[in-house]
Amino acid sequence: MSSQNNKRRVILIVMDSFGCGEAPDAADFGDAGADTLRSCYQSPLFRAEHLKELGLFNLDGIDYAEGTDALKGACARMTEASRGKDTTIGHWEIAGIISDKPLPTYPDGFPDEVLEAFSRETGRGVLCNKPYSGTAVINEYGDEHVKTGKLIVYTSADSVFQIAAHEDIVPPEQLYEYCRIARRILQGEHGVGRVIARPFIGSEGNYTRTTNRHDFSLLPPKDTMLDIISGAGLSSIGVGKIHDIFAGKGLTEYTYSTGNADGIEKTLAYMRQDFNGLLFTNLVDYDMLYGHRRDRDGYAKAVAYFDDKLPELMSLLKDDDILMITADHGCDPGFTKSTDHTREYVPLLIYGKDIKPCNYGSRKTFADIAATTLSYLGLSGNIAGDSLIDF
């Protein structure tokens, strides 16, 4: 690796769930017709002028919005090669791992052997054990939880084991310990992608979730670009859910965020610091607050907020920096068949002093992001994907 490459930085921002049209196999996932970007575009609150300049509407398959003839960056439409549409598998693929098998899901709830082991180790009973909306489940089971102390365990169409508890009954740190217990139990055959702590507050008829959510993911099955970057002595920094998604593997530093605005501010703060390597940020509100709740206007407004912050992000780029903006799956706020993630293409927008404006068309895997990142940093490793650009 040259000394020049040692100075380079990649700022990689994942707009969690910002898909851009149904994937070729969307029907296999029950998601034919899903299109997160199109749904947001239809909202009167949608605004994305800076994203447009980077090529958002020049992507393959977009026929409802006019692209730009004056591209400021490179763009591509990314296809997910892994068999999944969840946060864990999406981020793992972005980082260079293609998952051939989907992670286990539980449309009928978790089996007795899992719940019995969980109750035995936590000393608490279990309520619900069904796929459920996270906001509905606390209002339906919240009173019984408060009275009995039993934990609300639920899932979704994704590979998740979610535990909801009132912060006055189970303090967040205790809930996190229960999640660690569940994570140890849920391995092998029952190795769900994420165990998620879902703290809430409030009183009868008016329970609300707090920002103290934490995800406890499976350890990635092999090295990702994070391991290669940190192993080369460079910084590998995570903002938001990144630490949880990778179970800390390959990170040299991390910080959590309380939402998109906080995540953007923490990204800006890191960009003002002196480091070399990767800054990897997840902005979760698109998915958590708006996609799953099918709030089209809220989602569109969140995109507009990010678009308004883009000039500041771009202004902090040094000559040896590149900015990459992408997503990990879809969660179409206009999709009425379910409230779950949607199987979609995702955008990739790349901007930097030495990035030639162009459209790289449709790519076969999100892992091309990892390969491009490593190539730019002058590194190589045993990961999937091909670099978009010959640096």
- Summed up, the domain count is 2
Return the CATH architecture of the largest domain. Answer: 3-Layer(aba) Sandwich
Uncertain residue segments: none
CATH fold call of the largest domain: Alkaline Phosphatase, subunit A
Count of DSSP helices? 13
Helicity, in percent? 25-40%
Structural class: alpha/beta
Q: Outline, from the CA principal axes? A: globular
| Mean pLDDT across every amino acid position | 96
Return Rg in Å.
Answer: 20 Å
Count of DSSP E strands?
14
Please list the strands of the largest sheet in the order they lie side by side.
10-9-11-1-12-13-2-14
CATH superfamily of the largest domain: Alkaline Phosphatase, subunit A
The helix-strand sequence is HEHHEHHEHEEHEEEHEHEHEHHEEEH
For the report, how would you describe the main beta sheet?
8 strands, mixed
CATH class of the largest domain: Alpha Beta
What is the strand content?
A: 15-25%
Ends apart, CA distance between termini: 12 Å
Q: Would you kindly provide a written description of the structure presented here, covering whatever features stand out?
A:
With 391 residues, the protein is of the alpha/beta class. The chain has two domains: 256 residues, Alkaline Phosphatase, subunit A (3-Layer(aba) Sandwich), CATH 3.40.720; 105 residues, Phosphopentomutase (Alpha-Beta Plaits), CATH 3.30.70.1250. Helix content is 31%, strand content 21%. It has an eight-stranded mixed beta sheet, with helices on both faces. A hairpin with a 2-residue loop joins strand 6 and strand 7. The longest helix has 20 residues. The radius of gyration is 20 Å and the shape is globular. The model has no long low-confidence stretch (mean pLDDT 96).
